[in-house]
Batch of 4 targets.
Target 1
Amino acid sequence: MNLHRKLLEREAGGNRLRVGVIGAGKFGTMYLSQARRTPGIHLVGLVDLSPARAREALAATGWPAERYGAPSLAEAARTGATFVGDDADALIDSAHVDIIVEVTGNPPAAVRHMLRAFAAGKHVVNVTVEADAFCGPLLARRAAEAGVVYSLAYGDQPALICDLVDWARTAGLDVVCAGRGHKWLPHFADSTPDTVWEHYGLSAEQARLGGLNPQMFNSFLDGSKPAIESAAVCNATGLIPPPHGLEYPPSSLTTIPHVCRPRREGGQLHAKGQVEVLSSLERDGRPIDDNIRWGVFVVFEGDTDYVRRCFGEYGMITDPSGRYGALYKRWHLIGLELGISVAAVGLRGEATGTATGHRADAIAMAKRDLKPGEMLDGEGGYTVVGTLMPAQASLAMRAFPLGLAHKVKLLRPVAKGMALSWDDVEVDEGAEAVTLRREMESLFAEPASAG
């Protein structure tokens, strides 16, 4: 990896990558902490619905006040300082910005921002993976048509999984499974923002002091975010989803290649080339030592005796047969690692994960019995939970994508555990995100072949 050297060259030549960030929440703030000290990067502008919050984020991450006091984007570009405001469109349209980092966490808003960025000739690093899960294949196509790069965000687990899959395939290894870890028990699917902390392992006071959003964290706990992220991985890598949703088999680090092999060989996979999420808890709730709750993994196959001997000679973790090996990254650093994507996009014109086909969907399921007139409150809330399914099945049943299940009115009753369909909800057909999803459904009606 020569990205740091290339960044140093940009810094020395006075030709820094010109970056604009939309959103100053937790992920965005973590990136700000590192952008300040990364050579070759100029944060030209930071916008948020609350500019005061954006300034607080900069101050909290060590930025001197004089570095974010530019009165305009033009002045920021001239002086090397940063402009703070609330107008995302102005940032996107600015001639002084080349790369947009979308970190709002609001899928419809993210779609609008990204389409505008493509039209303006800007590269995009998309942290709002919910948007990628429901229309990533079409976003990638629109970016390619505009001659720009659309990328998932390194540091977030989907891009890290894509990186491991790419490593294995580039080394000539067949990928059997890839995914991430999670703390999971089946009843977590019913969790709401009111119950998240008791399951998650934090007290309400610890969460309050950390400024943690209960609905956002509950979207991880209840399985919504794993479904969203796994859909993004499938669409970017060609891996397939399990036919009936993620199963969260328990596993330690040392049993990953044992668990993530085909069922006919003693594992938990329906087929080779599948995504899965591994639980850090046994089904009875006992914690598993040396688990991969915070990390990502890839399982690959040694197709000859020679390769399998090499696995053994170099201490590779394998299944009992020695045929399946695993490589993992035990932790991910979220926004602290996001600069890898910014550099890869800006210096090499390469995405750290981008959709190549529509293979999987994260759909909305009723978290409880829902009544007509209720408003859906999105992933991690009180009304719906996400489930991963093959795109072909999702399209056939007209399933409603989880990424659009925000502030949408229910028209018909839906029983707990049932999938919501387009016919169950009242949507604004003129909304950009809805229009894009409708177009994608027509363009990608048949799933792409596995890659």
Target 2
Amino acid sequence: MNKITAIFFFGMLYPALVLGQGETRNWYFGSGAGIQFNVDGSVTPLDGGRLNTVEGCTTISDAHGNLLFYTNGINVYRADHGVMQNGTGLYGDTSSSQSAIIVPDPGNNLGYYIFTVDTNVQRDDPDNGFNYSYVDMALDNGLGAVTLKNQNLLERCSEKISAVVKDCDENSFWVITLAPSSSYSDTYNTFYSYEVGLDGVGPPVRSSMGLNITDKRGYLKLSPNGEKLACANGESGMFLFDFDSDTGRVSNPLSLQLDATNFAPYGVEFSSNNRFLYVHSSNDNFEGPHSSSLLQYDLENPNPNSSRRVLDERAIFRGALQLGPNGKIYRALSQSYQSGTNYLGVIDNPDDQNTTYTHDAIDLGTGNYATQGLPPFVQSFFDKIDIISGNGTNSGFLPLCVGDSYSLEAPVFLDGTYSWYKDDIQLSESGHLLEIDNADVEASGMYRVEIDRAGFGGCAIQGKGEVLVEAIPDPTDGVLIQCDSDADPNDGIAIFNLYQALDVLTGPETDFSLLFYENQQDFDNERPIANPEHYQSSGNGQQLWVRAINNAGCFGTALLALQTTPVTVVPSEIGSFYGCDEDAEDNRLAGFLDLDFLALNYTGFTVSFYTDLNDLTFEVNALTGSELLDDGTTIYVRLENDGQCADIELITLRIDPKPVVNIPSEIPTLCINNSSVVLEAEEGFQGYEWIRINDNGTHEVVADSRIANLTQGGEYLLQVTRSYTDTNGLHSCSNTASFTIPESNIAIFSQEPEVLDISANNVVTVFVEGEGDYEYALHDQNGPYQDTNVFQNVPAGFIEVFVRDKNGCGITNTTVSVVGHDKFFTPNNDGVNDFWQIKGIDSMVQADSFITIYDRYGTLLGHVSPTTKGWDGKQNGRLLPASDYWFRVQLQDGREFKGHFTLKR
């Protein structure tokens, strides 16, 4: 049995103007990043966030955890992630550390103030100082609208802001920032506390410090109980102050010592119990290499600096710290000023002096990046009170056993009024104690106490804790049987994994832990067996005492007898199991074991397979079929009846070689204008399959013999099979290799060749299409050929153009007309160059073209028709002398050109 008499409660401020921690349930930050806190304290990443900020951001939800809006201090986004009406142009800054914070309007439960801080980072960047805007959630069908914008409070301020409840009776908050004492100063030495109440934003309470703070960067945080103020100031250091929530004044500065390397504080946060302060500091090197530290300070220590503890050091950039509604503190993780990460770090139990830190704890999802900032909130949302001491834990969870008695106890407040609830149903108790005797399972539930006028600022406090009552386990006596396969299988001594007795003692559906004892005395003195996974029995029938324990720590007892079954490990009737080599090229004869197929040989047993007899004994490292095993491996088979070892057999794994597939070294091209390609595989195999991989990825067997007549090009597989005869009959191993049959075709002229003629450089461009690889030639189909389809310096006349497929699929040709003329002619009746004529003119198409001849003085000498041989060098039958002559051509198609040529004799 397990009896516990008290529980810690988690407490929260519950003033009229602050309904609970639902306001902090949803966070949006960084670049598209967001998280949601679930009721059980777990965290779920959120998508859809519209923020893109390197630093400042803030978010607010309603008391039930429904998102209302969020902002980077410039643009305000609604719950549906659209921009809020009039929600642009606020005077925050995405490069301000905190940029903005949202504070509920005490006089309007649908109204919210957005306070913003802005500083300049370069000469042309305006400094808009400290301002506030107002959001009315009653507008735009409940999506809200900004009704008041950029009301200035200070001309200049730092990049930091914080808020806390002032007074629940007066319904007011304090909103605080650090700024210079005047707008002309560059020293940030004055805190300005603004009361936000029923009448709006009041005048500031000024608290001037004798400090020389010149670095405006870093976070400002009030403790949840409003008594302390932590201020990080980059290269100007880290300070802790007292805060008076009645007056709004800041006092008693204490400089906190930081790591010598990571000297610049940025993110700060208090634990929810107000005892511990956490600081994220860096080396402030923007160019890299980057370095940062995560530090803890105990504020109950008279000298907090002496309590400094380093939780983490690593090469990352600076980042914010923010307390969550589950009591954990989250750390923004950034690689550099502009480069974020997909993760948040977590301080797991910040209320504990020995807390631990988990890096990369929260995965934000693909495309969502944390940068340097996290959303700040009114710190009073996180105020928590540990309610009494008792079982030494403040987890808020109390496990009990049926029949236990327990008490829930809240602190004593003389002016407090107590109301107790179970699962939100009010109970009759009205004092600081709730006592229940002889608990049953129905006593399980969520318990809550509300204490009126007990908290900070006169606010109510709520404590909450979960009680789980479980039945006491009732294990039955049982027997655990192990196979004894050692040198003397009849001695009753064997190695047992005692945890295998769980099903025997409590049944397969239970979730109990077990403790084992060798005798009654060890049981009574709580001396359990130290190594129950490898326990050697002392003889057949040995009896152990067992304690079965459930999650609540409740336990029952039973006796466990250890028995052995003598086993001589012999080869199975299967003998050997045959498989195929996995890789024919790796000089290793090894393959994968088909366990499902192998298990079919053992009907009536639960079967498991091992390569080591010790692993079989302790039922660890069982084969799963995914392990590559060498030829000759011994496989041990464990046979069980009702979870108890019945026999052991062994099988030898035999691996047959996988055939090597050799593709023909030269794969001919398949001409589409032809029929097929014939390929031959190597001889000596018992099976052949030629497989075409279709365009949609499906496989099609197109031939099943050694010689294949393939009629399509593309991607193929050749599979060959070799058969073996073993003790179990015929066995075969196959292997495949891939190859490609290239396709080609004779060229087709896609358009008429393009001719640029009647010039010093006649150019012909040929246009073809087809699946082939083509080359080009003029005049002669035997070449010479060129790769380019453009011919330069083409002579005038009718030119034959040839296009040849390089893969041998054929030649196609056409004729082009290149218009031009001879540069000279020799009319001496020798049959060579006796006439001058324009070349490349189709006498049928251009028959009406007009050609005239002139001498050097412009005298008309005659006319030439393209249908004749040409001009013979005569005028009216008289031979003209050797000289240069001129011509003019007017083609029938409208073109006209002039030139000259030489008559030689």
Target 3
Amino acid sequence: MSDYVAEQIAALKDEDWAVREEAASTLGSLREARAVLPLVSLLRDPDRAVRQAAIGALTAIGEPAVMVLGACLSDPELSIQEAASSILAVIGDRRVLEPLVAALQSPDWIVRMHAAKALGRIGAAEAAQPLLPLLQDKVKAVREEAAQALALMGSAAVPLLLQALRHEDWLVRLHAVESLGKMKSPAAVEPLLYVLFNDRDAAVREDAIRALGEIGDSRAVEFLIMAMKEPGLRLLAVEALGRIGDARAVPALIEVVNGSSRPAVSRPLDGCGDRWDEEMVVMGAAVRALGLIRDDRALPILVAALQSTITRAEAAAALVRFGPAAVPYLLPVLAKEQDDNLRYHVKEALTQLGWRRGRT
């Protein structure tokens, strides 16, 4: 094996790019630590395919390559920094924490993006503060990776993210909200509720609702029911209530489905030749939310929702979530209805619930 490895290392210097590419791939499959330095030198190869093969091989080798790649993060050539950071983003080794933090200030956005991803994978609390400025990076991909990295750091990043909710830059506030939602921190519920009703930017308020839904804390329920009254937030609030799954939301969601809380104005939506408005979309979301909550009070309204082509498919799927309890509500519909489309959805729901004709 050692002779074969030596042969492949030697082939990395062959004049034929195809030979160099194949040798790099072979060394990656062998995961041979001796190949690390020769493969790193291949990151400067003039042929793109060879460079990509070297990146793949070093990624496969993993831990033995970490320290050398960490040193590459300060290479004068940005393409080397990019390659090294992309590999370290996959490996995520704490030993190169310091050079990765330094790489967050690279002039190359690709390096900043990969460094943020690597730090998120490592999850070191001391990297949270250096990551925070990247929430206002001029490149969206960098901002998103920084937000994801902070989310992965858990409780260590929460105080910084809560502080960022008051930042003057709306992008910082937006990504802080996203991170808090992803980490599902209960400590973020009240600050996010403040953002929901007080932030001056609509996108930040919308993301606050999404985050509250992700966190799933019932403290948000009554406030989300209030937010349903605002047209721009109505759909998001309904979806968040479904994710939280608190039965206190059932009456408000039923009112959406039966149309009793329909807003005076609902923006029309054009699509597929049919005339729709926003409230029709909200009704479908409310049906889904009732299926997620699975409170028996919703069964009659979901059966009634089968009558409308707007909510029929969603209502059938929601009823399936109730399990056997939905069967007595569906059987009368199957017995008396003549509409083929409605009968199809009812039959499909009953089949998924395990019902077969002839059974009681």
Target 4
Amino acid sequence: MPFKLLEEIMMDDIQSKGKLYEHTETGAKVFYIDNEDTNRSFTIGFKTPPYCDNGITHIIEHSVLNGSQKFPSKEPFVELLKGSLATFVNASTYPDKTIYPVASTNQQDYLNLMEVYLDAVFHPLMLENPQILAQEGWHYHLENSEDDLIYKGVVFNEMKGAMASPEAQMDDLITRNLFKGTPYQWNYGGEPNAIPSLTHEEFVEYYQAHYHPSNSLTVIYGKIDFESTFNLLSEYFDQFDRQENRIDLSITMPELENKVIQETYSLTEGDEAKNKDFMALAWDVARPEEVLDGFGLSILSEILFGTTQSPLRKALLDAEIGGDVEGGFDEIGYPRVFGIMLKYSSVDRMEEFKTIVYSTLKALVAEGIDKDLIQASMNKVIFRLKELVLSQSSPRGIIYATEIYNSWMYNGKPTSPLEFSKYLGKLQQLASQGYFETLIQEKLLNNQQKIEILLSAEPGKNDRLEADKMAKLQEYKASLAEHEIESLIQTTKALIERQESPDAPEDLEKIPVLRKEDLTVETEEIPLTIETINAERKFYHAPQFTSGIDYLRLYFDVSDFAIEDYPWLKLFASLLTKLDTNNYSAGELRTQIDLHTGGIGGSVMAFITKEDQVKPYFILGGKALETSFDRLIELMDNVITQSILDNQAEVLKVIQKGIATFDQAISDSAHAIAANRALSQLSAGVNMAEQVSGIDYYEFLKAHREEIQAQHFATILDKLEQIREKLLNQTRISILYIGAEERGQFVKESVLAQINKLDEQPLGEPVDYPTALRQNEAFVTSQDVNYVAQACFDKSILPYKGEDEVLATILRYDYLWNNIRVMGGAYGATYSYKSDSSAVLASYRDPNIQETLEIYQGIPDFIQNLTISQDSFDKNIIGTMNRFDRPLSAFDKGMKSFNKYMAGYTFEEEQATKQEILNSDIATIQQKAKQYQTALENSATVVIGNKAQIEKDKAHFDVIKELF
């Protein structure tokens, strides 16, 4: 074997053995995490520092997955998603590296995924085919001579959306200026204005210099077939000679040129800019070899910012100079950043901001940090790491690989980031010796490698920049000769022809897939015991091995609360753990929670049953080690029964935080917001969710922020008190416990001893909850891209069937992918189809509205005329079955069993659905065209997006509103 073993390392914290290998010819390093986990993973990473803002590393990440020598179909990546049992398939670009991870619980599938990815990264077709750069990166798009010339490209539109939020722009300004003169100053994802400067020659040259085994680091994880795995690596690595010019990511930081940076970000034209500025302080604090300080800075982040009662976050919020605070330690690459961001403020308060930060930090050093606060913050990190080791829902091997690269990419030990006990144990010893105070002094107060950022709100900025860009594009077009315009048209049409042309059957057949015969309909029936406490109340126990962690959730039946009460229920839930109680100050409460538990929190949700009944609940949940269970119950009781609600300032902070969180969600996941909004017009249960997490709740928070600011807090306090008084009724409460089988009765009796202290009253009559008002809506934001959603919810139109799950897979990875992403230039599009018969279409970071809605309307024709080989159809069946058989953590297993029971579904029905999936055939699916036509005719449309584009397509909407 052309690999030599360099080192073996016991990795006790993750119950594995680490084995470091080197490929003798190229010097490529491979780190194997050897254990019995069958959720195997493979990750290959390359050092890829950018040299400008053109997004080259990000665009290469997209492009290598667009066909390779051995697998020449246009998108083997998508074919893998269709026909694999993969638990993870993706690729990610970071500030200085690009990684390609895959995972599967099936040994052959794992090897198939490895082979396709290895061929993609080492033999991509993008080197010879400039159309791949044009599609994934950017191109001039001109279909007819009279059309406007525009830019199109998947990454181009992705980054227009990714850079829309002020938080993203702030992060970019920090690295751009703190690390000026290094690769970290560049926007590694690509600056939209700079992406169109990338040429194919640069593209190929950069790839050839960086995508080589000598510049790679590979992490293998789990119970693999060792010989087959390393033979596959050898097959690719053996094709290369050693590359002597190694890329070193360690750099010397130059002197800072400018320590105060001022910029603006865009609001919607006409929006009020007052108190919407952002400010930040940021320090260059560490290097990868400072492993102990890395763990220390992570814990310091918890100490300073972990809760609303953390000293620095509290000091800033108490000063009322901003609406929200974020801060902490970030391992961006070779340099590491510690930053503090103040949101929704005014830049003329920068001196106040700095004064509070520095005076608070100096006081912590001079007076010492509260020892319980240090221990609580450490416990919080330790609990998080303990759960990570237990995780199944996210492949552990990929999580570990990502951590390993934080050291290994910079010539450090691959195991260092996973030696939790070693470093946390050392920190436990050092904490009493003033370690964290010294860390503040040296890394923050005495550190001159720091910058200040002032980011002011500028209404209409993006619209003006977009108009200017369009004008320049048309000027450029006007400067072209007739033959040059014709050349652009022909290039555009050639790209469209490539995108519309199906892959050759022989190319698709080259992609290794599992066989339909490899699938099984067998379904694990996860146990759930149900014990009746009285007519209304039950004790549910999902027995699972949780490594000594107890998971407890109390479900308060709120079916007699009016729909108007639900935003108040959510606000009350958000206030829990953030206020003084009759037994603790807010700071003491948070410290006790972090010392003794893994967290406590409230939420509001509704089950939608098989019969379309809405079953709403207020939930109080918590988790703790078995040894701390009594404290968990006591603290949970304290936060819900003893919280003092009359603290106007703290209530305002929680409202501000809720607004800030939603603002960020508009930038990160507006497709989900739009989809749920559309579905709320058709489903009472989703409309309830809209009251506690959607646009309606966002508007509720903004309205009551204004009430508090206008000194009308008494009405808010009165409503919160009414909500709690009505809620605290033992008749409402059922108990869910996920944990050891032998602890069930002890947990039940312990919890009931607390619950039975509450009043006992009969519940009111259940409310018949409405759906939202039926209307097609558009919500204007300051983004340059759109999120286009369309929803249907009607069992009589789309009754849930296994074959519809297969059709959903075909729509996602064939019709929508090709039309909205590949040809439309959007970053993504999806189709969600659930067992309650809810069906939702949504696009993500989409340059279009009208065109996307037309694509949705074309679904019935696509279904009716579906032309697909049996092999391709079987591949989609495999990809569909994958959704049903993913590994779950012990907690997630317990929740799955409970959720099924509450919604009225059984594991037998899941098994029957899997059988329907296996029995699906093309002819049956083709006959569904009329059903989907009817569904679209009865759908609701919601768009979140760009003002100019919404105005252009306003005929689609009954209502247009400004959102952000």
